[in-house]
Amino acid sequence: MQPDNPYASTRGSITSKQLPAFDEAMIQKYNRSGPRYTSYPTALEFTPIPVDLETKILKNREARAPLSLYFHIPFCRHLCYYCACNKIITKKNSDSGDYLEYLIAEIKLKRRLLTTEDGKNPVVKQLHLGGGTPTFLRDEEMVQLWQFLQTQFEFLPEDEGDYSIEIDPRELSGNTLKVLRDLGFNRISLGVQDLDESVQIAVNRVHSAELIENVLTEARELGFHSINIDLIYGLPHQTPETLEQTVRRIIEIAPDRLSVFNYAHLPERFKAQRQIKEADLPSPAAKLTMLGNTINTLTEAGYQYIGIDHFAKPDDELAVAQREGKLHRNFQGYTIMGDCDLLGFGVSSISQIANANSRDILQNDTDLQAYQATIDAAQHNLAIMPAVKVIKTSIKDRLREYVIMNLLCHDYIDFKDVNQKFGIDAITYFIDEIAQLGAMQEDRLIDMDAAGIRVLPKGRLLGRNVAMVFDEYLDKKHKNRFSKVI
Predict the structure, then answer these.
(1) What are 278-316's pLDDT values in tens digits?
(2) DSSP symbols for 425-486
(3) Domain ranges across the chain
């Protein structure tokens, strides 16, 4: 019988049919550059925002829609050479206080435009601090930000909401984790990348396995609900053997989630990566071996492969949401809060505001001084708002977004479901895309029939390739802007 939610599954049971199958020949055949689809259309479609448009978007958002808040803290105390982000390396404590003032000013600008049905503060179900290193903010500054937010928004209780922060374990003060937990943060993410000392030295991020274990032990004792660890494969001096040792050591520490990212060496685009010698990087064949070993080791240890680099224990909320067909994806990655509007604050932050037929995606300036100048100007002219770029999606975009995101979250697209939601005949509408998927069906990466398209175990690591077929914007001028899928 068809379940109420066609995307619900028994995924997560540790059975062979649920696990991703690593097929090196297929990966080499289909491995090409493509987006990570944290949005559709992707960020490459941003255009300059007209005056007053952000004001109209925020005023006209669905008043009943809950919010997910994102705060971008761009500062780090150390330069990691693999970094591909717009971070500011500084040790000046005054930077965090100055930046906090700008965040609070931006919150006030946006909050005045948000309406609710009952006249109360808008409901927040999710909050995330990213960066940079969010704990660059001093403990007292974090308290100041949190207490101010309580005056502007209504937060779900911490056992119902999702409140997370990214952490550099080297930069924690003795009391920071307790401060965060007392405020209501219930999830943390630690950047580890690798535990091998030679790799750490090569990327300028040195720490011990004992430090990581101590942070996780303290976080568990304090009652954090979920702990994520980031790893990267393809770093200088990495070998399949050394990475295997790292992965097995991390499994012993037992985080609830893991993100295992592919290092893309693009020194012409990212200045920090020029510190890495290309001769020190593992070969493409070694990287594939690393990927295959990591997938096998994690799944054998009981982790559920979520998709696009992410793994979770079967009882983690992310894994449960995927099995129940309730997983979503946005600029924060995989999320269980798909019904939220995303409201971003800070330099380069992105917002996603939806209504019945379209979605507006907005981005603040990526340059710190320009962002601060905009916030300063807005204090004297209420017509000025922080966003400098926008993507206004159409109903056609929403249709393709729905197909792409369900393929990436649930490895399935149900034609009957699509027909009902968008008033089309999906097979006729996507006849060209279905034809393009013929080779993948022959290679047993997918299975297509009159009911829909299902990504098979051998195709799960290439889910982005399946999704790319439905991307109308992905043309030759864009393809060289992305890293390869693997």
Answers:
(1) 999 999 999 999 999 999 999 999 999 999 999 999 999
(2) -HHHHTHHHHHHTHHHHHTTSEEEETTEEEE-GGGGGGHHHHHHTT-TT--HHHHTTS-B--
(3) 16-38+395-479, 43-343
